[in-house]
Each structure stands twice: as structure tokens, then as C-alpha cells.
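Notes from hallway chat w/ T.B., transcribed later so I don't forget. T.B. wanted the structure written out for a chain they're using in a teaching module, and asked if we could keep both sequence and C-alpha cells in one place. Agreed to drop them here.
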Amino acid sequence: MTTTTTTATTTATSTGMFVKATDGEELRVLGTRMTVKAAAEDTGGKYEVVLSQAAEGADTVPHRHPWEELYVVLDGAMDVTVGGRQMLATAGDFVTIPANAVHSFRVVTEYARFLHVSFGPGAVAAFRDYDAAVPAAPQLDDLGSVMAINDRHGIEVVLPDGFVDSMLAASHAG
């Protein structure tokens, strides 16, 4: 007697993509212009590619999330912090950010353009939610919306010790 075992597997695959410079889903995310070139639904959930364009002073607060990502700076410069390390990233520089690593950036030139690549799904879904709720640079009134989006997508803001106390003290002093 011969026994045959068949194992069914499903493999997510992506197809070849050609996305012109002027094409892609346009989003405004907390004041930064982003163009989605490939989302998880385009790549079988393997990766996401977004072109980010931010003005001087644009930044992110220190945060972490479950997906790994990388930045390739195309134009301009930004201070990027990953863990305890900070670097000035300029055109041509490449920065990797491990999953769950605390990181942030701040644009220090008139503007910066960089490629944001994330591995696995997550980033683009969060960016779409920010675009719908808080497309401009967030104000104090937007904090609840931003935190709700963060919670939905597993994004944790990591504020330095004493930050909240110093902000409260400053608001009461004025």
C-alpha cells in the first residue's frame, strides 16, 4: 500500500511593478507629503515603499512599531536617531531601523526627500489613517486622534523621562 501526502501551501507573491515618478497614492501624514509607490496589498504583504517629502523642521517624536524599515535620503538632510545613536543623514545615506527600535527624525534643511521602505504590512495602513484624521502637522487638539491611530497600528510613542512634567509645567507658567 502506498500513501501519498499532499501539503497545500499558499505563497504570497508580488508581480512586477512599474510606477512612474508622478504616480502613486498621495497622502498627507502629520504635515509630510507621502506618495505610496507600493503597499502591502501590492507586494503580497512583504514590503511597502513610500516616497516622503518633508519641509524643514518636520519631525517624528521618538516611537517604535512592529515593522522593520529603512530610509534612503534622496535630497536634503535629516537628523535620524535609532536607539541611542544619532546621525546626520544626507543625500545618498541609508539608515536601517529594526522592528521595535525607538527612532525619530528631524529635517534640518529646507526640505528632505527620502524613500521609506517597511518590511511587512503596517506602515501604509497607519499613514492612510493619519491622512484621513490628521493630514497637517498635529496640534494639541489632534493628540487624541493621533494616539488612537497609534494604538490601532501598534505604534508606541516613547517620550523621554520628565517630558510630560516639563510640558505641563511650561503650560502652567504661561
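Follow-up for T.B.: The helical segments are 123-133, 143-153, 163-173. Might be a good example for the class.
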